[in-house]
Write a structure and sequence with these properties.
By secondary structure, the chain is α+β, with helices and mostly antiparallel strands. It contains 1 helix and 7 strands; from the N terminus they run αβββββββ. The strands form 3 sheets. It has a 3-stranded antiparallel beta sheet with strand order 1-6-7, with no helix packed on it. A two-stranded antiparallel sheet has the order 2-5. The structure holds zinc ion. The site of zinc ion (ZN) has 6 residues, from loops.
């Protein structure tokens, strides 16, 4: 086989692989839609767990030596931190969702008011 023939053969195979990728992506989309339909049928019984995300601290090298400018930064350390995150899994269908968002629960509290001055 000449080099030209070998190259042509590989080009054809690359093109065919590209078509397979497109077909598989379509299949993946179809399966994703089916999966969402399964999840939509469920009334979900969530089990919520606190699953914080840990980010390791590191040292940033800063600007390269010899870099000019008034805002030059040398090496500095970025401390490790923990980010709040929650994961919930449905006991019925196995759907898993994670979130880092929180909302403040509004709690309305009240007590009987007998219109007397408070006891001292
Ligand atoms: Zn469910």
């Amino acid at each position: 086989m000449s080099l030209k023939e070998e190259a042509e053969k590989l080009k054809t195979e690359i093109a065919n692989a590209g078509k397979e990728i497109v077909a598989l992506q379509e299949l993946q989309k179809t399966h994703n839609i089916s999966l969402e339909n399964v999840y939509a049928k469920c009334s979900h019984q969530w089990e919520i767990k606190y699953t914080p995300e840990h980010q390791k601290g590191y040292v940033s090298p800063g600007d390269a030596p010899g870099t000019m400018g008034i805002d030059w930064r040398g090496p500095f350390s970025v401390p490790s931190k923990t980010i709040d995150r929650w994961t919930r899994e449905c006991k019925c269908c196995g759907k898993i969702e994670t979130t880092k968002k929180v909302r403040v629960k509004e709690t309305e509290t009240y007590e009987p008011d007998f219109e007397k001055p408070p006891l001292k």
